[in-house]
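Last lecture ended with a question: if I hand you only a sequence, what can you say about the shape of the protein? Today we answer it with a concrete record. The protein is Transposase Tc1-like domain-containing protein. Below, first the input exactly as provided, then the predicted structure, then a couple of comments.
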Amino acid sequence: MDICPGTVKPTKLSVYIRERILSLRRSGKNITEVRDELIRSDNVQVSRQGITAFLRRFRQSGSVTDFKVNTRQKMLQEVHLEFIDETIRNDREISAREVAKLLTERFHLPVSETTIKRARQRLGWKHSPTQYCQMVREVNKPKRVNYALECIINRETFDNVIFTDETTVKNTIVYTLFIFGKKEKKHKQKT
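The predicted structure:
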């Protein structure tokens, strides 16, 4: 059959066209006759494959409307999200790779770094580069206290040291650390 000029080729079948297909099939027309009738009477061009695919979906669902079926189960359950939240709260410098490794060890749940990053964002954790926070790690705090105590015991006067204030030191390498904090809560800066 020749296609008339002005015939519409829809990207998605409307509910009306789906009902027309069912009506024409029930009246005994085959797929080719249904296609030709839609072109002639409704000025809509639908391929035979499109009609067949709709009829197959209709037999499975029994409905002419679209159903959004999300059969994919969420990988991270509530217990996993709580674990991620607590892990980041305990170590604000932990990377997504390290969190993924801990999840695998604790729950035998292999997840990607991207999944961890999405979960971290969903939990409200934001990161800021180290230029906006102090770089003293938790493990170095006791070492600094011990050094200060040694200086007191040895009566260090620092006569041969020049002190500066508001000094900016930037890394010359690309690697930069990040610290995580929740936006709604002001996180404690590292000191």
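Comments.
1. Residues 15-61 form one domain.
2. The first strand starts at residue 125 and ends at 129.
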